[in-house]
Design goal:
The structure holds two protein chains of two kinds.
Chain A (H helix, E strand, L loop, with lengths): L2 E10 L2 E11 L4 E5 L6 H9 L6 E6 L2 E2 L10 E4 L11 H10 L9 H14 L15 H13 L5 E5 L7 H17 L3 E6 L2 H7 L2 E6 L2 E6 L1 H6 L4 H6 L4 E7 L3 E4 L2 E4 L10 E6 L4 E4 L6 E2 L1 E10 L2 E8 L7 E6 H7 L6 E6 L2 E4 L5 E5 L3
Helix pairs in contact in A: 2-3, 2-4, 3-4
Chain B lengths: L4 H29 L4 H8 L2 H34 L5 H7 L2 H4 L2 H12 L4 H10 L7 H12 L1 H14 L2 H8 L4 H30 L2 H7 L9 H10 L3 H39 L2
Helix pairs in contact in B: 1-14, 2-14, 3-8, 3-9, 3-11, 6-8, 6-12, 8-11, 8-12, 9-11, 10-11, 11-14, 13-14
The chains are: A alpha+beta, B mainly alpha.
Chain lengths: 364, 277
């Protein structure tokens, strides 16, 4: 079932949580709503579920207008951030709840309910814990039960609010993969909320980046990462270094640092800010023809395939510049503490004078 | 464990005060009641005045408790589930019966519903109904005096539990009533019982407000506390202490129930906090 929201506006008192939001989620999609806290993503999810009424705008499931339809009749599966399992019911009774609430003429028989519950708990690999109470489960287990409960009525729309937010890093990673897999197994359109960039990038088919009640960009994970539509998106997707300096049409300078670039879009007074992603630079003992950015190593963290290096600019810049270099390259370079090095950016993102994203540039 | 002698002294003083102020009077009630033997106690217990007082007390409690049960749940529901203007004011207003002397409450009811008042006269003229100096008035003031207990016990619990489980129930197709019956009620049942126990104890023991509106008609509008007062004034000390013993025994049962329920509720709140850190 496709989900469409049109010109949704929602205010709480004087605070505008959502401002003219329109979004289309196609049938069978797995879409991540990504944004910092306060960006309105959870409010949007709750409006789609029917837990909140928008001040303006409409919500459609397929082509049916459900804007004024009661939450209980929307038939969406919903997983709460804190799971909201019924604490006085066992795992099995939690999962059976939706089936038991059906009107008598639609309610399956006792045996059919039991069979369906077993089937669901097998699906989420919780079939050995049917008699436990929520307080006796770990976070990841609660998460699975909450999901089984949400799927009991075979919803065509599954909404998840920060589904992995309350779990520790290792369990989170495992469950992410598992959710992706589950989504492929069952015929459902899923929308999940997250503030974790990595999570959105890994799990979703498409990412909706939100900030301050607006949608900044909608696209595949690759699109939003490689072609960010706004400074906010670029900023939000991973760490960036902002290099502020002056551009004279050929050279970008900041104190002791200089870069030879061919670009436009600097401010009339010559100010030009460049964004550098940590993995789009290298380190060397000598400056190159086009780049001379003297730095010294202030700290490093070796974890996984890359080494994250904190660099302190020498005679330019403000604060630390963070880059990620290949572990092999790091070993070859083997820099000593306080040894003078040079930063060699491969790709840079220009920022225009009015704060938008300009063209991407390479030192040449 | 306390280490210094003055800590032990304080603890001993506390125990001493409890014995002198609370336990001793309680023990004396029973010794006084039985001072002339069990037969006299039995006689007093079966006297018509006593039986009528017991009946009246039970009737007042039987009406008051369900009324305040429903009222308390509704109020707690409104205050914890809806955001509205005046919510704070409402939670403050609930406490009026706590803050006000019961005698004052009784007098207020007398002024509003008594035979001299507009409302009282209108009721008497049209329906032939007399509220004051009769059972309805006594029930009304008891309801007033005991109305905060259930709400006061429920509000903090329901606040700590939040509304997500109810929302989950509604999204699973439950009606508002089903969500209340299958989700909210099981979550609050121990607190609710606790509130009921408190309400009942207060309803049975209420003296001030009831004495103002009862009119003290022997065999008709005397509840147990009022009867104790009357018997005491009649110098029937065994009778007074027998009735008092009855109330005291009830109080002890209540205390026991309250302790058990408090213990269970604490477990519930702990569990709630485990779920929502």
């Amino acid at each position: 079932m496709s989900i469409r929201v049109e010109s949704i506006r929602k205010t709480f008192g004087g605070f505008t949580a959502l401002d003219d939001i329109s979004l289309d989620v196609s049938d069978g999609g797995l879409v991540g709503l990504l944004g910092p806290s306060g960006s309105g993503k959870t409010t949007l999810l709750r409006i789609i579920a029917g837990l909140e009424r928008p001040n303006r705008g409409r919500v459609f499931f397929n082509d049916r207008d459900v804007t004024t339809l009661d939450a209980r009749r929307r038939r969406v599966g919903f997983v709460f951030q804190q799971y909201a399992l019924f604490r006085h019911l066992t795992v099995a009774d939690n999962v059976a709840f939706g089936l038991r609430m059906l009107p008598r003429d639609q309610r399956p028989s006792r045996d059919a309910i039991r069979a369906r519950v077993r089937e669901l708990l097998e699906l989420v690999q919780m079939d050995t814990m049917t008699g436990r109470y929520p307080a006796q489960l770990s976070g990841g287990q609660k998460q699975r039960v909450a999901l089984a409960r949400a799927l009991a009525l075979k919803p065509e729309v599954l909404l998840l609010d920060e589904p992995f937010g309350a779990l520790d890093a290792k369990v989170r990673k495992e469950l992410r993969r598992w959710l992706r897999h589950l989504h492929e197994q069952i015929d459902v359109t899923s929308l999940f909320v997250t503030h974790d960039q990595e999570e959105a990038m890994e799990v979703s088919d498409r990412v909706v980046v939100m900030s301050q009640g607006h949608i900044e960009q909608v696209g595949t994970p690759l699109q939003v990462y490689e072609q960010p539509a706004s400074r906010f998106v670029f900023d939000f997707l991973g760490h960036i270094n902002a290099l502020e300096g002056q551009y004279d049409g050929r050279l970008w300078r900041d104190g002791e640092a200089s870069l030879r670039l061919d670009t436009h879009g600097a401010c009339p007074n010559g100010d030009l800010t460049l964004y550098l992603r940590p993995h789009e630079a290298e380190l060397a003992r000598q400056p190159s023809d086009s780049a001379s950015l003297p730095v010294r190593v202030a700290g490093r963290s070796v974890f996984g395939g890359t080494v994250t290096v904190e660099l302190e600019p020498r005679g330019w810049g403000r604060g630390i510049v963070e880059v990620e270099v290949d572990r092999e390259a790091w070993r070859e370079l083997d820099p000593q503490r306080d040894e003078p090095l040079f930063l060699l950016p491969r790709d840079l993102q220009t920022v225009t004078c009015d704060g938008d994203l300009g063209p991407r540039v390479r030192p040449a | 464990m306390p280490r210094h002698w003055h800590q032990w002294a304080l603890i001993l003083a506390a125990f001493g005060a409890v014995v002198v102020l609370l336990v001793l009077p309680l023990v004396l009630i029973f010794t006084q009641a039985f001072s002339q033997g069990a037969a006299v106690v039995a006689d007093n217990l079966t006297s018509t005045d006593m039986i009528s007082a017991i009946k009246l007390t039970v009737i007042v409690a039987l009406v008051t408790v369900p009324v305040n049960l429903v009222f308390g749940v509704l109020l707690a529901w409104c205050v914890t589930r809806y955001e509205f203007r005046g919510r704070k004011l409402l939670t403050t207003l609930i406490d009026i019966p706590f803050a006000m002397s019961p005698v004052v409450a009784g007098l207020c009811y007398l002024v509003v519903y008594g035979g001299q008042s507009v409302v009282g006269q209108w009721l008497d003229d049209t329906l032939g109904l007399q509220l004051m100096f009769a059972l309805p008035g006594m029930i009304m003031v008891t309801v007033f005096v005991t109305c905060p207990y259930v709400a006061r016990v429920l509000i903090p619990l329901m606040q700590s539990q939040g509304t997500e489980e109810e929302e989950a129930a509604v999204l699973l197709g439950a009606s508002g009533w089903q969500a209340f019956w299958y989700v909210t009620l099981p979550k609050i049942r121990w607190a609710l019982l606790y509130g009921v126990v408190l309400t009942n104890a207060r309803a049975v023991g209420e003296f001030g407000a009831v004495s103002v509106v009862s009119g003290l008609i022997r065999g008709e509008t005397l509840t147990l506390p009022l009867l104790i007062q009357m018997l005491n004034e009649d110098y029937n000390s065994v009778g007074a202490f027998t009735a008092a013993g009855l109330l005291a025994a009830l109080a002890l049962v209540t205390l026991l129930l309250k302790t058990v329920l408090e213990w269970r509720q604490r477990h519930k709140i702990d569990a709630a906090q485990e779920v929502t850190p």
